[in-house]
Amino acid sequence: MSYLTPMEQVGTRLLRVHDMIYRRTNGWIGHRIPGAPPSLLLHTTGAKTGKARTTSLTYARDGDTYLIVA
């Protein structure tokens, strides 16, 4: 059972599609979406598993620094 409104469901699906495209193109497509903050790809390795992982995160500039939303 979903507690999201139909608009929230559409937004969630669009974000998932964006994330998939952004990852599969290794950041070539999807860095910027009109009307949305830019994204970055964070590549990490699991400490216990050693498994490589990639996560897309949103970021913004604040003067000379960057704010990353995780």
Structural notes for this entry:
With 70 residues, the protein is of the alpha+beta class. It has one domain. Helix content is 27%, strand content 33%. The chain is built from one helix and three strands; from the N terminus they run αβββ. It has a three-stranded antiparallel β-sheet with strand order 1-2-3. The longest helix is centred in the first third of the chain and has 19 residues. The mean pLDDT is 85.
Number of strands: 3
End-to-end gap? 26 Å
What proportion of the residues form beta strands (DSSP E)? 25-35%
Q: What is the overall number of helices?
A: 1
Q: Secondary-structure blueprint of this entry?
A:
Elements lengths: L5 H19 L14 E7 L6 E11 L2 E5 L1
Antiparallel strand pairs: 1-2, 2-3
